[in-house]
Amino acid sequence: xxxxxxxxxxxxxxxxxxxxxxxxxxxxxxxxxxxxxxxxxxxxxxxxxxxxxxxxxxxxxxxxxxxxxxxxxxxxxxxxxxxxxxxxxxxxxxxxxxxxxxxxxxxxxxxxxxxxxxxxxxxxxxxxxxxxxxxxxxxxxxxxxxxxxxxxxxxxxxxxxxxxxxxxxxxxxxxxxxxxxxxxxxxxxxxxxxxxxxxxxxxxxxxxxxxxxxxxxxxxxxxxxxxxxxxxxxxxxxxxxxxxxxxxxxxxxxxxxxxxxxxxxxxxxxxxxxxxxxxxxxxxxxxxxxxxxxxxxxxxxxxxxxxxxxxxxxxxxxxxxxxxxxxxxxxxxxxxxx
Length: 338
Hints:
Elements: E1 7-12, H1 14-19, H2 26-39, E2 52-55, H3 63-76, E3 80-81, E4 85-89, H4 92-99, H5 107-119, H6 130-154, H7 167-170, E5 178-181, H8 187-195, E6 200-203, H9 224-231, H10 242-245, H11 251-260, E7 265-270, H12 279-286, E8 291-297, H13 302-313, H14 319-325
Parallel strand pairs: 1-5, 1-7, 5-6, 7-8
Antiparallel strand pairs: 2-4, 3-4
């Protein structure tokens, strides 16, 4: 007699797209934008606004110099090279994340940078600097719009050329399982089509092949500062709270129906860092009574597995429950890479 297995809720993050060779790192994005400005587009990318201004000192780029210039500034974080060419930031938020730029900077880190900057708008005397906060909101909105343009450009890939490195994994899923896709691309849906499968895919942060905006911001409603923002009674400062953007379609409602089903489910994580900016959602999933086990498909080695475990722990109030649910390293597997 075959014992019925638990349902599976598979969490898909940016590491999944990276494993398929997509340029979806933060440094890919910033390199792309710098390249647009260096090439000198005939019009600005978003609403007649340049977020970076390039001053060439009268010296023009030769085509083969552009890549060298980008390599230099991304490696050294200096804004001067190749004679007297310089760039300056017109967007304060973009400048702040550039100043803290590292090769391993993740999108969840960008969301945290924004939230921490928003916290700083409350001075040491407890007073709220409304003008500074409004400027940050506007700057973050511009970066978000720019990011949407970038994702739209890179998702126009040939689906026939995507290496199906997870085929053996996804072909084991069936109609009782579901995928929670935190990415803005539809790479994961290629497997559903390939396998002619019936499981559901929930694009919780939006899918730019289906809609024009993305869910990008902060999602930690447990943080005491979130309550402070609510008590300001000014909705403009909640604009980038993720929960409100979930209401744009029925994706979250479908996810709720899956989770609140009394039948147990196991969580499997592929390429998701489980950062704090999704705490509201991830706590709901991980701490739910129907969630029995959490399995991490790690990147390369134990170090990544351990980092994801520590991120997951921040979503649990009950640490005993956390230790009971996370599968040990020996029971987990590494993600394949293209």
